[in-house]
Amino acid sequence: MTYVDGFVIPIPKKNLRSYWVMAKIGCKVWMEHGALEYRECILDDQSKGMGKPFGKLAGCKGGETVLYSFIVYKSRAHRDAVTKKVMKDPRIAEMMSGKKMPFNLKRFGCAGFKSVVEA
Questions:
Q1: d(Cα 107, Cα 103) in Å, to the nearest integer?
Q2: Contacts of 21 (CB under 8 A, 6+ apart)
Q3: So what's the pLDDT on residue 98?
Q4: Which secondary structure element, helix H or strand E, spans residue 107, and what is its range?
């Protein structure tokens, strides 16, 4: 079974362009260092008939949308090894060095998940 890092990111719509620039760099770096899959997804269809709308669940405010991103690995140990390499990569260091992030880091959520059902 694989291991997945998942991210939920409320973001102002006006900042999407700068986020996509970062995401493309992140995708390249994670894949070069061994991630199996890298996805950046933007909210498209908020079903209103079942459960809480995803944007509301993510705490979106006016003018915001939500991104759901995930990275797939062979295992947690593989995730840890890939992440260690990624964090040493100069492209990531440059992206994180003093630049204003296009989203509020205090409102973004991330976690690691063990896969329990796969097809």
A1: 8
A2: none
A3: 66
A4: none
**Distance, CA of 14 to CA of 22 (rounded, Å):** 15
- Using CA atoms, how far residue 24 sits from 40, 43, 52, 77, in Å, is 9, 18, 30, 25
Pairwise CA distance, residues 29 & 87, whole Å:
10
Domains and CATH numbers, the chain: 3-45+55-114 (3.30.70.100)
9-36 tens-digit pLDDT: 999 999 999 999 999 999 999 999 999 9
Q: What angle do CA 16, 30, 44 make, to 5 degrees?
A: 35
Contacts of 73 (CB under 8 A, 6+ apart): 2, 3, 4, 5, 34, 35, 36, 79, 82
- Residues across the chain: 119
